[in-house]
Amino acid sequence: MPAVTQSYKSGNQLSAKSVLTWRIIQASVWVVGLVIFLSLIFYPSLGLLLFWNILIPVAPALFVVAVGIWRNVCPLATTNLLPRHFNLSKRKKMSITLQSKLQLVAILSLYFIVPLRHAILNRNGLATASLLTIAGITGFVMSFIFDWKSSWCSTLCPIHPVEKLYGGKTLVSMPNAHCEECVNCSLPCPDSTPSFHPSMAQKTIYHKIGGILTIGGLPGFIWGWFHVPDQLEITNWYNFFATYQLPLIGLVTSAAIYLFLQLFLKGKNERTLINIFAASGVSCYYWYRLPALFGFGSFADDGLLINLKNVLPSWSIIAITIATTLFFFWWIVLRKTKQKSWVVRPEYAAKHTSIDSQSFA
Questions:
Q1: Which of 13, 74, 82, 121 is in Cβ range 3.0-4.6 Å of 117 for a Cys bridge?
Q2: Which letter, b or e, does each residue of 276-286 get, where b requires 16 or more Cβ atoms within 10 Å of its Cβ?
Q3: In tens digits, what is the pLDDT along the chain, a chain of 361 residues?
Q4: How many CB atoms are located within 10 Å of the residue 28 CB?
Q5: How many Å apart are CA 48 and CA 51, to the nearest integer?
């Protein structure tokens, strides 16, 4: 990718040296991603361990603390933005309605894909690699048509709803290592809008449905997912759909609770409610994921990274999960912080008018 000097709204400039540094970091992470991808195909045991039991467990915590880092270095983003970086994109402006529809598709895709882990993905490297290939090709093709991150990162990416829910109180705004200028490709821009959350855009019915499914549905979905074991073999359709039963029950239940509480909470109180559901989601994830990683899970070797059950006392893993829960609730709900965006917005392109993203709140 060309080393383009980026100037920012704040008056600061990302020097050519800084751009080169970010390109090196992006290329390095991309190579790591390629190694994991090839391992999934040729050394599936290793690839599955690296992808599902190392990379994925780290991601939610990174989204909470500094989601801008991931937005800058995600290997899929680096790949999908190549057509735009090399001026091969048609740079079409995506309408807000289409954006909202694709964002709804993203959250529905997340809820469809994650239970597939129990059915096949957790134990089949080729299937996981195929899923990544489909995602990569889809985003790459979309980038030839639409401008910057509207093509994938801020619309169709199934991980983006999780970023929006967990990233509302990021620690620091990172330099924007992709966008050379702001062309208002996504409104509101999730990267550059301070304290962004899934209900900030309520322009269409698709935005509203997506916000409810993300904020209200994710905590219950996570709870249900961790109560389903990996399937050694899918022998019939009943076994396949059984992997969806508890996650969807949890999703509907927590979404209903969210909608009920939302009736009584408006304004700042509504934002606190969103933060509570965000903290509940990420806390629930690590409450079950950390024990499974270290051999204390409910389902034998499901999600196992290294078995420490005969090394650590059982109370230690309970203490760790309690500590992580307290941390996330403090960080997301109780901690007072200045509003920060995931990354620093670059200067607006000359032909575009500066739009305050917060006006879409």
A1: 121
A2: bbbbbbbbbbb
A3: 443 333 334 434 567 888 899 999 999 999 999 999 999 999 999 999 999 999 999 999 999 999 999 999 999 999 999 999 899 989 999 999 999 999 999 999 999 999 999 999 999 999 999 999 999 999 999 999 998 999 999 999 999 999 999 999 999 999 999 988 888 888 889 999 998 988 887 678 999 999 999 999 999 999 999 999 998 777 788 888 899 999 999 999 999 999 999 988 877 788 999 999 999 999 999 999 999 999 999 998 899 999 999 999 999 999 999 999 999 999 999 999 888 999 998 888 765 444 444 434 3
A4: 11
A5: 5
